[in-house]
Design a protein that fits this description.
mainly alpha; three-stranded antiparallel beta sheet; two-stranded parallel sheet; 14 helices
């Protein structure tokens, strides 16, 4: 149902309170809703205060009928978010592959995935398996999604700022939300409103849709520290009762897992990957690591037994060797001792034979003496002292 812009503004000015400053929207919620909006899921943005409604078909039928009635009666207040078509998702993925992926094999694999069934989920699964591509994909996804969201908000003539972009302290932002419909406010609130007005104009500039690269020397490569933005609590004053059960208020997330059409958070996506091939590989690796650990423990135990056995064998070998050496030395001593004793016995004087006492022995002894003959003794002569 198409309604002219002028007529739309007239209806809003007549029936609804007018915001005194641009709507403070959350960029990450819009990205999430844009990615998940399809033929079965509808998301609406409230143009009066900026809250979002998700038509959840799993809710009570009676509550759903009340919500549909509220939206139909106040169609000028709610703006239906566009559906993420197959062509747009394919364009997202192909643009990333052609612009950011440099490895030829990885590029060919991703292009094959894009042409297959369930391309979005398989694409994310492959990206989360390759960490070098994951960071590039998250940056690319946020940049392209930001341009798409800003284009849609501009087409609907909505004055807005993203809460993630504003540089105002939290207490002042909370006061801005509380006094959004009050014409007269304090100086601090009015000053903050002026900042929001100036910021809102930047989203309608050409640079918002075509961000230019910064000129000059590139900055030094430093460790990238991602700081979560300081977001204030949601404060809405004009939410109709049929919409309260359908408010879309997910927590902040900087991941690109919102591109998934099935899962709401990155944790759910990673949990789902545990049941896929990647999970099977992880399970196999875990089982293999457990086996290796058990083998390591077993080898340590065997090493201890081997050490004891080795020590025992060494002791036995040493004792056996020492016994052999001792036996050999004893034998060698006996042999050497016999040789030495026989050698020495030739130099030592022989024992005198005993004098025979029997008559036969005496007769034999005398005969040997006669045969031996008399001993010749050379007399020793001494010279006299006078004869020299």
């Amino acid at each position: 149902m198409a309604i002219g812009t002028k007529k739309l503004l007239d209806l809003m000015s007549e029936n609804y309170p007018k915001a005194q400053n641009p709507l403070i929207l959350r960029f990450h919620r819009l990205i999430d809703a844009f990615a998940k909006s399809d033929d079965e899921r509808d998301f609406y943005l409230d143009k009066v205060e900026g809250f979002m409604v998700f038509v959840d078909l799993d809710k009570n039928t009676e509550d759903l009928e009340k919500l549909v009635t509220e939206i139909e009666k106040n169609i000028s207040r709610y703006c239906l978010l566009p559906k993420m078509t197959y062509y747009e998702t394919k364009k997202f993925m192909e643009g990333f592959v052609n612009e950011k992926v440099y490895d030829i094999d990885t590029k060919e694999k991703l292009l094959d995935i894009i042409q297959s069934r369930e391309a979005r989920e398989n694409f994310l699964e492959f990206i989360y398996d390759h960490l070098t591509e994951l960071e590039k994909w998250q940056q690319y996804y946020h940049e392209r999604s930001r341009i798409r969201v800003i284009e849609w908000l501009r087409d609907n003539n909505i004055a807005f700022v993203f809460e993630e972009d504003i540089d105002i302290v939290k207490p002042v932002v909370e006061k801005l939300k509380q006094s959004i419909f009050e014409p007269k406010v304090g100086k601090d609130i009015q000053s903050a409103r002026n900042q929001l007005e100036a910021k809102a104009k930047t989203y309608y500039s050409n640079e918002a849709l075509n961000p230019r690269p910064k000129r000059g020397r590139p900055p030094k490569q430093t460790a990238k520290v991602e700081l979560e933005p300081q977001l204030t609590p949601d404060i809405f004053q004009t939410v109709p009762s049929p919409c309260r059960a359908f408010l879309f208020m997910p927590d902040y997330s900087s991941s690109a897992a919102t591109f998934s059409s099935k899962f709401d958070t990155e944790a759910q996506l990673i949990a789902s990957l545990r049941g896929t091939t990647r999970a099977k590989v992880d399970t196999k690796l875990e089982a293999l690591s457990q086996r290796l650990e058990s083998l390591r423990h077993l080898s340590d135990r065997l090493r201890g037994v081997d050490d004891l056995g080795r020590e025992k064998r060494m002791i036995e070998a040493v004792s056996e060797t020492s016994s052999r050496i001792s036996d050999k030395s004893v034998k060698r001593d006996d042999e050497d001792g016999g040789k030495i004793s026989s050698f020495i016995s030739g130099f030592l004087p022989k024992k005198k034979s005993a004098v025979p006492k029997q008559p036969e022995e005496i007769q034999e002894y005398l005969e040997k003496k006669k045969k031996a003959g008399k001993k010749m003794v050379t007399p020793i002569t001494r010279k006299k002292k006078g004869n020299k």
